[in-house]
Amino acid sequence: MEKLVACVKEKPDALCRLICFPWAGGTTSHFAQWGKLFNDSIEVFCIRLPGRETRLGEPFAKDMTSVVNEVTSVLLEQFKEKPFAFFGHSFGTYVSFAVALHLKEKYGLEPVHLFMSAAHAPNSAAHLALKNAEMPDEDSEFLAHVETVGGILVLPHNTDFMDSMVLMCRADARVFQTFSYEKTEKNNPFSCDVTYFYGSDDKIFDAQGWRELTSGDTSFYELPGDHFYLLKPPNKSFLINHITRCIENAGL
């Protein structure tokens, strides 16, 4: 489990686990630190995909199915052990949704809450258009494309770091393009509440479709900032407090 999960503060008596899924090209460096910010009722796991950090020597995931299968197989006992919630940002939103869908369909397990951020609803036309968009071959054009679909963290002026970031982003983009979801009239996959967060200065995402994916409540919160609004300290504090309230009010 240590290969897949970063947990900087273990809380064996926590009531719930929050599983966090980073953005494209992302690592565990941000979300794993959330484990120190939540109270003792919430333990934080951050998912580490292959090809980065301690998994640098492993080949990148080839598709969404392989990512979902690894997460569910490694953490299945943890999912069965106690309640869990998901937080996904951008690309991580799609990964978390795919994992949640697989857990519900195959094992009858469901998060107590889905926290989604800065991404199209997976049943929207905008998601389908983004999925089918062609990825430029040239690195500078690829990075420009990433900027248009949400953005990338400011890169240091380091050629090796830049090359590594491009490789990770390309790999995650390929995984994203292998994920698809079709909503049918009778298909309402979740009963948990869904909360969607977005930055006020980010591009416009088609998020209303989340209402169609659960019989629970769906709420939307705009926070000041761009695609990476969640890195701003005031926004981080808001997220920590709001997520805590939602989980503690879930009747665990």
From TrEMBL:
Gene3D superfamilies: alpha/beta hydrolase. One of its GO terms (molecular function) is fatty acyl-[ACP] hydrolase activity. Residues 19-239 form the Thioesterase TesA-like domain. One of its GO terms (biological process) is medium-chain fatty acid biosynthetic process. Its EC number is 3.1.2.14. It catalyses: (9Z)-octadecenoyl-[ACP] + H2O = (9Z)-octadecenoate + holo-[ACP] + H(+). It is an enzyme of class 3 (hydrolase). Keywords: Fatty acid biosynthesis, Fatty acid metabolism, Hydrolase, Lipid biosynthesis, Lipid metabolism. InterPro entries: AB_hydrolase_fold, TEII, TesA-like, Thioesterase. Belongs to the thioesterase family. This is S-acyl fatty acid synthase thioesterase, medium chain. The lineage of its organism: Eukaryota, Metazoa, Chordata, Craniata, Vertebrata. The gene is Sast.
